Amino acid sequence: MRITVLGSGYVGLVAGTCLSVLGNDVICLDLDELKIEKLRQAVLPIYEPGLDSNVAEMVKVGRLRFTSKYEEGVAHADIIFVAVGTPQAKNGAADLSFIRAAAAGVGRHLVKKSIIVIKSTVPVGTAHMVKEIVEGELASRQRTDVQFAVVSNPEFLREGNAIQDFMRPDRIVIGSDDAWAVEIMRRIYAPLSRNHDKLLVMSPRSAELTKYASNAMLATRISFMNELSRFAEAAGGNIEDVRRGIGEDSRIGRHFLYAGAGYGGSCFPKDVRALVSAGRSLGIDMSILAAVDTVNNQQKTILFEKIASFFASRGGLKGKTIAIWGLAFKPDTDDVREAPSLALIERLLSAGAQVRAYDPIAVHTAKTALGSTDLVTFCSSAYEALAGADALALVTEYREFRTPDFDRIAASLTEKAVFDGRNLYARADLEAAGLHYFDIGRGN
Ligand code: UGA
């Protein structure tokens, strides 16, 4: 099928590339000409394992092309996927200006029967809004004869695992009131839904809410565990045992129950707040989700509090140097948006400390996020970050941090303290190396 994907960000690039791998003829459209020029040479604006080689391969075989021109993109396609950003507006709501612009751009150039598929995470009612914008543009061009359907088809892929998640989805949500459009969506996703039907067909509004509900539920599980981890610390329990104890109940399940330094990224924080904000405008007090956000904001300070309390009896943090392992909000991505590492660094700097940071992938994005400062030194290896440091904080659980040389860590750190924000290590290993060890809720 002939497909155009609007927006070459995370979701758009992954979807466009995977759809071309599945045999479709795909154009990715983005108004950023520099980005498009680089993509033509298979230079990607984001880091995602395996994506660059797939892009290069699909460009080579001619099933993936890039353009910055709406005329070209819209004329090409029978199906137009909208995957533009929906960032957080100042009031916490989703900012729909890119969606509106995309809908208008499509409406201005639509010439044949098409499906407009909304892949971006959008508030309930957006498919309806897109339909009205496109109808308005068609009317002003006197082309109301052009038939089109708007389908809500949220994406559930995770950064760092995006290709696998796209190609092997747990479910495919299709929100549409048009039977002919559902049939075509069924055909597009047939290769991913072969052995059993993964398609869930519902109204556009239910599909839009399903996306927010998924992220909100996962964020709720994390905040729930983070809150319990504080309780466990105070009461003397071990949150990891509790996690196993509840996760084996098949009604609860094992996933997304890991207490840590708080959730970050471009999705959970933004989507939870957007749902709270949308509820407010409907007169619904989303008190559970407001609490999920509050708990997460508190959790992002937890490593700092532990570090500050350790150094309180050692002359305070002023003039101390803290090594940080991991800047990205999770492993295998260069994304630092809402990352717990940034919250920690800001607090450490305000308390007069300096930071030596290492991340295998996300240094360039962290540098941009933090702006120019002499107080943060970016290092090119995990052990280099320890040189001259007083303590180590582990914030992102990259594989390469899993089994470090604890004797070497102890020899490097002046105050011999490790703050483990992801419960990666066993206390006995660190204490055997003469290190002070602080984790999240495992009974300090
Ligand atoms: C999330 C969802 O998992 C995807 O299904 C969804 O498509 C995506 O948002 C989106 O809306 O685009 P992502 O933000 O890439 O994906 O990352 P996750 O793997 O979900 O992790 C989010 C955050 O939660 C990370 O900071 C991670 O460290 C934290 N987390 C995760 C925990 O603290 N504990 C856990 O048990 C799991």
From TrEMBL:
It catalyses: UDP-alpha-D-glucose + 2 NAD(+) + H2O = UDP-alpha-D-glucuronate + 2 NADH + 3 H(+). Coiled coil: none annotated. It is an enzyme of class 1 (oxidoreductase). Gene3D superfamilies: Cytochrome c1, transmembrane anchor, C-terminal, NAD(P)-binding Rossmann-like Domain. Residues 323-427 form the UDP-glucose/GDP-mannose dehydrogenase C-terminal domain. SMART domains: UDPG_MGDP_dh_C. Keywords: NAD, Oxidoreductase. The keyword Iron does not apply. Pathway: Nucleotide-sugar biosynthesis; UDP-alpha-D-glucuronate biosynthesis; UDP-alpha-D-glucuronate from UDP-alpha-D-glucose: step 1/1. Belongs to the UDP-glucose/GDP-mannose dehydrogenase family. This is UDP-glucose 6-dehydrogenase. The lineage of its organism: Bacteria, Pseudomonadati, Pseudomonadota, Alphaproteobacteria, Hyphomicrobiales.
